[in-house]
Amino acid sequence: MDEDKNKCTVVVFSGDMDKVFAAFTIATTAAAMGMESTMFFTFWGLNAVQKGNGTGTGFLGKMLSVMNRGGIDRLGPSKFNFGGIGRWVFKKMMKHHSVMSLPELLEMAVDLGVKLHACLTSMDVMEITKDDLIPEVSDVVGAATMLMEAQQSRVQFFI
Amino acid sequence: MMGEFSPEKTLDAKGLKCPMPVVKTSKEIKNIAVGSILEVLTTDAGSMADITAWTKSTGNELLKSEQEGDVFKFYIRRLR
Fold first, then answer.
1. Distance from CA of B56 to the nearest CA of A (A)
2. By a Cβ cutoff of 8 Å, what residues of chain B touch chain A?
3. What confidence tens digit (pLDDT) does each residue in B23-67 have?
4. In Å, how far is A38's CA from the nearest CA of chain B?
């Protein structure tokens, strides 16, 4: 039953621009190499697949959203962000060196058939609903689903 | 004289950085017939290793790879 299909599973726990970039590069290249590629966005990784509107139902959820607004273009580097300056610097440098921007890379990933899944539990904790996510996210799933994919994957990553 | 290849298509990936050369190659290879040749041009230094790895992984045949100045040229036969 757990045949070794040629799959690649990437768990995206981080919401930092640099880490999410690495995650998408791996998943997209895996798809380009013929692997069935799936990404699971959980906790801070959810920032990468949110539309960017305010989220939260209760007071704490809304406060969290104010401090942690989603949207892939809002992600900052894991170091030296300095309140957003680092993000600006990295975007500038990436453009200067002809490296794809994150939103473009996400589009490319989806274009190659990379599946984007979101973690239900962290969504519930942070009071984020499916409507707050970009339409490219196909399913909201749990850990067992992710593990089943991981079992069938030759390569698994936790970023 | 080295046999010259006549590629069915040429993919100009010059100026693109990883993962784009490999990503574009994987898309473009679908646009040629099985058995035909795709010529890929890149300037990305990592592409020599990347394109080679891609052909191995996907079961296509890398006929030739060469460097002319700062342009890397690859000739890939689509096998499946």
1. 9
2. 15-20, 22-23, 25-27, 53-54, 57-59
3. 999 999 999 999 999 999 999 989 999 999 999 999 999 999 999
4. 16
A-chain residues near B22 (CB < 8 A): 29, 32-33
Cα–Cα distances in angstroms (integers) from residue B3 to residues A68, A84, B26, B64, B74, in the given order:
59, 55, 25, 11, 14
Largest pairwise CA distance in chain A: 50
ipTM rounded to 2 decimals: 0.83
**Which residue range forms the structural domain that includes residue A93?**
7-158
Q: Which of B18, B32, B62, B63 is catalytic?
A: B18
Q: What is the residue range of B66's domain?
A: 9-77
Task: Kindly state whether residue B2 falls inside one of the protein's structural domains.
Answer: no
Of A92, A99, B56, the closest CA to residue A84 belongs to: A92
**pLDDT tens digits along A39-95:** 999 999 999 999 999 999 999 999 999 999 999 999 999 999 999 999 999 999 999
3 state DSSP class of B22: helix
